[in-house]
UniProtKB/TrEMBL annotation:
<dbReference type="GO" id="GO:0005975">
    <property type="term" value="P:carbohydrate metabolic process"/>
</dbReference>
<keyword id="KW-0472">Membrane</keyword>
<dbReference type="InterPro" id="IPR003859">
    <property type="entry name" value="Galactosyl_T"/>
</dbReference>
<dbReference type="GO" id="GO:0003831">
    <property type="term" value="F:beta-N-acetylglucosaminylglycopeptide beta-1,4-galactosyltransferase activity"/>
</dbReference>
<dbReference type="GO" id="GO:0000139">
    <property type="term" value="C:Golgi membrane"/>
</dbReference>
<keyword id="KW-0812">Transmembrane</keyword>
<keyword id="KW-0808">Transferase</keyword>
<comment type="pathway">
    <text>Protein modification; protein glycosylation.</text>
</comment>
<dbReference type="GO" id="GO:0003945">
    <property type="term" value="F:N-acetyllactosamine synthase activity"/>
</dbReference>
<keyword id="KW-1133">Transmembrane helix</keyword>
<keyword id="KW-1015">Disulfide bond</keyword>
<dbReference type="Pfam" id="PF13733">
    <property type="entry name" value="Glyco_transf_7N"/>
</dbReference>
<feature type="domain" description="Galactosyltransferase C-terminal">
    <location>
        <begin position="219"/>
        <end position="296"/>
    </location>
</feature>
<keyword id="KW-0735">Signal-anchor</keyword>
<dbReference type="GO" id="GO:0032580">
    <property type="term" value="C:Golgi cisterna membrane"/>
</dbReference>
<keyword id="KW-0479">Metal-binding</keyword>
<dbReference type="Pfam" id="PF02709">
    <property type="entry name" value="Glyco_transf_7C"/>
</dbReference>
Length: 307
């Protein structure tokens, strides 16, 4: 009976079509999504109903860092900071009102140097991270991000710098092109270990979401945004906040410059990652929580019709 079925043209066409569909699904990353469904570790559990103040534990930054006896010394003759910072608190509160002034941000972060630079005192940081923020006409969002992100990163005991790449004028916004400019400018300043690509309207909710890179491949860290009900909108999504090393950036030939307006460039970047033979990693869903600042659509940042 099976032989007779296979001899029918319609049955053969159905089987061939099914095989092609499965092959296409797997080539687009469906295998990773199936693995995530059946075998992915869910990660630690956090109580987001009782978050800590985002400025918690900063008073400990001025004291002696907690390092293990006999820790190896870094290039500056200091012991390396702990692999997991003892200052982490987990979920942190995110507030959109009132919008802090720049003077208040400076006052609350006295250890941050001019130019948005910070390095921990008393221990050698294990990662030097450049945070690159494409920006245009979002001053309120930028102030909220800076107020929130500086203490968030200081508790992780990173050496970091925040680069705000501003697009002047009223022309159509080009996120990916600004990111290319940001990478170039950041690497002219310093040999950063890690490049974090950060939308200005996304605030992280858990400081266990470490702003460090994975040497095995690019990371997508904004995996659970309130905009999408704290879930991943689709398996290949690479938008919001992501990270890669300078070598990974060069291997994928940077980012596309032709995406003017909203949308499309993050999917293109994810495709470049795959074509370069690299795989995207992500933190557990319970860790990669982000809140998006509410806003209306921007003039000059309309949806890209070719996305």
């Amino acid at each position: 009976m099976l032989r007779r079925l296979l001899e029918r043209p319609c049955t053969l066409a159905l089987l061939v079509g099914s095989q092609l569909a499965v092959m296409m699904y797997l080539s687009l990353g469906g295998f990773r999504s199936l693995s995530a469904l059946f075998g992915r570790e869910q990660g630690p559990t956090f109580d987001y109903s009782h978050p800590h103040d985002v400025y918690s534990n900063l008073s400990h930054l001025s004291g002696a860092p907690a390092v293990a006896p006999g820790s190896p010394l870094g290039p500056q003759g200091l012991p390396y900071c702990p692999e997991r910072s003892p200052l982490l608190v987990g979920p942190v509160s995110v507030s959109f009102s009132p919008v802090p002034s720049l003077a208040e941000i400076v006052e609350r972060n006295p250890r941050v140097e001019a130019g948005g630079r910070y390095r921990p005192a008393g221990c050698e940081p294990r990662s030097r991270t450049a945070v690159i923020v494409p920006h245009r006409a979002r001053e309120h969002h930028l102030r909220l991000l800076l107020y929130h992100l500086h203490p968030f990163l200081q508790r992780q005991q990173l050496a970091y710098g925040i680069y705000v790449i501003h697009q002047a004028g009223n022309g159509t916004f080009n996120r990916a092109k600004l990111l290319n400019v940001g990478v170039r400018e950041a690497l002219r300043d310093e040999e950063w270990d890690c490049l974090f690509l950060h939308d200005v309207d996304l605030l992280p909710e858990n400081d266990h979401n470490l702003y460090v890179c994975d040497p095995r491949g690019p990371r997508h860290v904004a995996v659970a945004m309130n905009k999408f009900g704290y879930s991943l909108p689709y398996p290949q999504y690479f938008g919001g906040v992501s990270a890669l090393t300078p070598d990974q950036y060069l291997k994928m030939n940077g980012f596309p410059n032709e995406y003017w307006g909203w949308g499309g460039e993050d999917d293109d970047i994810a495709t470049r990652v795959r074509l370069a033979g690299m795989k995207i990693s992500r933190p557990p869903m319970s860790v990669g929580h982000y809140k998006m600042v509410k806003h209306r659509g921007d003039k000059g940042n309309e949806e890209n019709p070719h996305r």
